[in-house]
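Troubleshooting: if your tokenizer reports a length mismatch, compare your output against this known-good record of 159 residues.
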Amino acid sequence: MAYLSNVDIYYEMAEEAYKVMSEALQTRYVMSVDRKTMTVDGAKVELASKQAFIVIAFCAIHFEALVYIIALQKLGPEGALRVDRKLYEDRIVALGCPHDSLLKQAKHLREVRKKMVHEKAIDLEAKPDLYAANIGMAWDAAHDAVMFIRELRDAVLSS
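Known-good structure output:
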């Protein structure tokens, strides 16, 4: 049975944003004019951060679309709806992919996505060091999300 979905477009968008983010991170340090010090290119840091959010969002969207299609194929429409209402890690179990690594990564993506979508502002006067930490966490979370989606795709599309 064939299904109409943007699942592959979501994956491509995540991968493209990941590539841009990675390139920006690799080139964010610039040699000063005097060639004695390195400075951080703020525009590259901002670009990498924006791309990290795109990566996380589209990895989560891709996950939901891919898992729903697989649930439709394995469980039919009613079963797919039941699976669709579960936590990310429970969806993987319901589809017969209870690999410990996938479960941990699914939980992590779910938690990161939730924090991103339901953001809570940070008082920088009370915790000024959190700004840089949050930026780095977004980059790490984007990397983790892409690695998870790649592993999940390998596991479910090869079976």
